[in-house]
User: Fold this.
Amino acid sequence: MAEPQPATQAERDELALTAGQPIPEAGQWIKDLTAGHRSFAERLADRQSQMIPSEDPGYGHLGQAFPSWSGGPTDAILQPPKPEIRPSARVLERVLDRDADMEAGD
Assistant:
């Protein structure tokens, strides 16, 4: 089934509601979209319920023919490098003092 044609300006205008006015009946194009969605949902449910039969009739089935996608990593594959955080002068001074104390203890 092909994608539906984009809504025309007149069809988009049907969707605009005005406060205090009764909600108009849905246009035929909305009913057609709804029917198409239902048809697709039924076909998808039928496909997802299909099982792979076993060669041995007494064994049962081997699992779903079209298993649903379980997702995967949500992070990007390529990521920019983490920004370099430079230590403050006070931190550098403390590290130098610590290193000097360690050398004096040896």
